[in-house]
C-alpha cells in the first residue's frame, strides 16, 4: 500500500453518551463537554492457545473473548457527569442547570451508548470527512479519584467497558460492538 497522507487523522472528537437503545437504535445523546485529555478506545481479544506434547510452542490459537474499553476524562464537573461516574440512573437527578442535585445511592448496572464525532480522513481534494464512532452497549466499570485542588480542575475520569450487543439484528452491517463511519469527504 502506498503512503496516503490524507488518511492521517488529526483532531479531537466530541464525545457523547446516551441511554442504551436496543438493536443499534438511535440514542438520545448528551455531549460530555470539555475533556481533560484525549479519549481512548482500547480493544482486547483473549485467545485460547493449544499446545502439543509432541512439539514446542503453540500449534493453534482461537479467539475466545473480545471487548474493549473507553477511557474519558471529563473536565466539566456537572451533576450529569458525576451521575455517569457514580453509575446513577437519571431518576437520581433533579433541578435544572446550574441548580442541579444528584442524590448518590447504590451504583446501578446502566447500559449506555457512546458516540465520538470528529475529523476523519481527507478525500483526494483535501476536504476532510466526518468520522462517527458508535459503541452500542457500554457500562462504566471504574473511575479514578476526583482531585479537589486549589490550583486545578476537578476531573471525572471513567473507564467504560464495550460489550457485545446481542440485540443487533444485522451484525454484518452494524457490528455487534459498534460501528465507525466516515462521511462527507472529497
Structure in words:
- The chain has 186 residues and is mainly β.
- The chain has one domain.
- The protein is 6% helix and 46% strand.
- The strands form two sheets. Strands 1, 2, 3, 4, 7, 8, 9 and 10 form an eight-stranded antiparallel sheet that branches. A two-stranded antiparallel ribbon has the order 5-6.
- A hairpin with a 2-residue loop joins strand 5 (93-96) and strand 6.
Features:
single chain; 186 residues; mainly beta; two-stranded antiparallel ribbon; 10 strands; 46% strand; globular
How do the strands and helices of this protein lay out in sequence?
Elements: E1 14-19, E2 30-31, E3 40-51, E4 58-74, H1 79-85, E5 93-96, E6 99-102, E7 112-122, E8 128-143, E9 156-163, H2 171-174, E10 178-183
Antiparallel strand pairs: 1-2, 1-7, 3-4, 4-9, 5-6, 7-8, 8-9, 8-10
Would you kindly provide a brief summary of this structure?
With 186 residues, this protein is mostly beta strands. The chain contains two helices and ten strands.
| Strand proportion | over 45%
Shape: globular
Number of helix segments?
2
Q: Order of SSEs, N→C?
A: EEEEHEEEEEHE
**What's the number of structural domains?**
1
Uncertain segments are none
Count the E strands: 10
Give the N-terminus to C-terminus distance in angstroms.
20 Å
What value does the Rg take, in angstroms? 20 Å
**Percent of residues in helical segments?**
under 10%
Structural class: mainly beta
Q: Note the main sheet.
A: 8 strands, antiparallel
Rounded mean pLDDT is 94
Amino acid at each position: 500500500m502506498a503512503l496516503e497522507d490524507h488518511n492521517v487523522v488529526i483532531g479531537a472528537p466530541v464525545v457523547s453518551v446516551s441511554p442504551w437503545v436496543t438493536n443499534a437504535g438511535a440514542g438520545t445523546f448528551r455531549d460530555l463537554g470539555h475533556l481533560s485529555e484525549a479519549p481512548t478506545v482500547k480493544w482486547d481479544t483473549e485467545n485460547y492457545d493449544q499446545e502439543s506434547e509432541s512439539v514446542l510452542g503453540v500449534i493453534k490459537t482461537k479467539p475466545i473473548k473480545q471487548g474493549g474499553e473507553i477511557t474519558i476524562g471529563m473536565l466539566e464537573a456537572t451533576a450529569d457527569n458525576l451521575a455517569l461516574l457514580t453509575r446513577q440512573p437519571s431518576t437520581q437527578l433533579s433541578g435544572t442547570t446550574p441548580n442541579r442535585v444528584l442524590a448518590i445511592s447504590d451504583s446501578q448496572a446502566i447500559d449506555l451508548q457512546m458516540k465520538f464525532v470528529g475529523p476523519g480522513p481527507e478525500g483526494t481534494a483535501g476536504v476532510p470527512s466526518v468520522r462517527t464512532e458508535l459503541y452500542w452497549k457500554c457500562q462504566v466499570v471504574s473511575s479514578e479519584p476526583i482531585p479537589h485542588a486549589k490550583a486545578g480542575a476537578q476531573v471525572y475520569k471513567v473507564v467504560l467497558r464495550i460489550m457485545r450487543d446481542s440485540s443487533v439484528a444485522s451484525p454484518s452491517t452494524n457490528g455487534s460492538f459498534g460501528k465507525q463511519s466516515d462521511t462527507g469527504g472529497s
